[in-house]
């Protein structure tokens, strides 16, 4: 179903005159050092009423992607995705970003660099949707940085990277996770192993599970039960296109942090 909707949206939007999404390739460092790993990011800023999509958009939408053309010896890691938000494409619930976001990518330089500067080139593809959908395919971006013996952070961009790095979901050993597959749903149970550290489940606020592998129907109802004790149960509707798996990949996003003194509101399943 998702792939069908994606194809229809691409076809319907092919004639869009101007893409409303603001996109910029930025670096966390002012210079590149030989052999060191540094981070760059694709900064996405949709206008009010529009959204982009997470690494798994749900039953509709197209995830943002990046293809790199790098100088010899350079390598790119996987995108570090900030926690998603629930978005709507027409009447269907999907997974994406209503607000600005930064898709963070680690890059590693070779141990020997003989030039004075380096140019990093990316081709980004995305879907930005509001009352209409606006696709973009392999749009080129580039950034040129000097090469020095030691990489230094760029004070103009580092706060932005720090802010969105905190939004990247993390696994947490303080919570145990159990999954039970039922005929039409998956029962996910989280239990605190360190209740003195973790926030009481009644204080987490609203909760939403985002599927990272398509097993869960992003448009279906999620039933949440809190307790007894420090236990949380979420009954998740299985997607019609769900792959059969003994594992469940996804992220649970809460209003409040999962630790009493923590900041992260996004918990990645182990």
Automatic annotation (TrEMBL):
Pfam families: DsbD_N. InterPro entries: DsbDN (IPR028250). It comes from the Bacteria. The lineage of its organism: Bacteria, Pseudomonadati, Verrucomicrobiota, Verrucomicrobiia, Verrucomicrobiales. It comes from Luteolibacter soli. This is Protein-disulfide reductase DsbD domain-containing protein. Residues 26-137 form the Thiol:disulfide interchange protein DsbD N-terminal domain. Residues 1-17 form the signal peptide. Keywords: Signal.
